[in-house]
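Contributing: when you submit paired examples, paste them exactly as shown. First protein:
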Amino acid sequence: MPTAKKSKATQDFVPIKEVRDGVVILKNNSMRAIVMASSLNFALKSADEQNSIIYQFQNFLNSLDFPIQIFIQSRKLDIRPYIALLEDRYKDQLNDLMKIQIREYIEFIKNFTANSNIMTKSFFVVIPYDPPLIGAKSKIMGGILGSKNGSVSAKEKSGSFEEFRTQLDQRVSVVEQGLASAGIRTIGLGTEETVELFYKLFNPGDTEKPIQMN
């Protein structure tokens, strides 16, 4: 009689081990930093401006000595926070004529968004860093220090993380400076923003408030 297969937990399919100080640590101990990038109204630029942007972006890509991933997230626009704001304005309004206009505007927005597929796009750049032989290094360090089973103390692990984080931060700086030369603003995601981003990726049905760039 065949044995029943055990169902795997959702976490088994997620390659992320933890998110620490805004850094994504994968199960193979490699690290990822995520930078959110602004968009450009490229079509509204003059021909010279377009050529300049293309040239700067080309120079940026050619200057990289490590891979990056450009990720575009498209989601249906969540209009609920805006509607809630209008509802508050409606309640606080004392002028009857203004209340009528606000109510009509609210209904217009609701009907328009219900009949139109309005999407928002967010742009991200993922910067990787693979610590060199992190597993082997831990065993060697453990053997040198006389630790049982080649284990490494929490203090040493923290030191290794900070060391590798410095290398990753240097790569992030290269990406941010390169994109800035092409007129693209960037902001690094912290722990909360990173967790929110992955939550939305694995729960596409949720319509939470989108990440905002200042």
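Second protein:
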Amino acid sequence: MLPHQAVAPFDWPGLLDLIHRAFAGMEGRIDPPSSLHRLTAQALADQPGEVWVIGTPPVACVILTPQPDLLYVGKLAVDPAARRQGHARRLLDLAAERAQAMGLEALELQTRVELVENHALFRHLGFVQTAATAHPGFERPTSLTFRKPCKDPHA
């Protein structure tokens, strides 16, 4: 299955359900709790980045938001029933292609400190940890930032 961009009309409530299923495993593991509980289907539809999905209905998704020098990778989600099939890698490869097309130098994403399996996956896919940050009110790091350069294969 190839990624395709989610554009209106789209089943935004269904996409929100996918994200909730994919992120359910972090419930009770991360502190502070995820901002995912404040995300709405309308916010997904209105967000300023690009939403890409795999499958109809979607089994994986990612939100790509351009920033000055990089493409921010958000809400990378794979349905638990569709894991270990290369969907996350496919979406991250697409993110690198989109970053290159936009003239951006890197991909960046964040993951919570407690989600060590995510750290391992991102390192395996060529990301390097570049920062540790704390949510407001926390003195200890709560999130890790990972970055991966995007190289134009034709340069």
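If you have annotations for the second protein, write them as plain sentences, like these:
The beta strands are 3-5, 50-54, 60-66, 70-78, 106-112, 128-133, 143-149.
The chain is about 25% helix and 30% strand.
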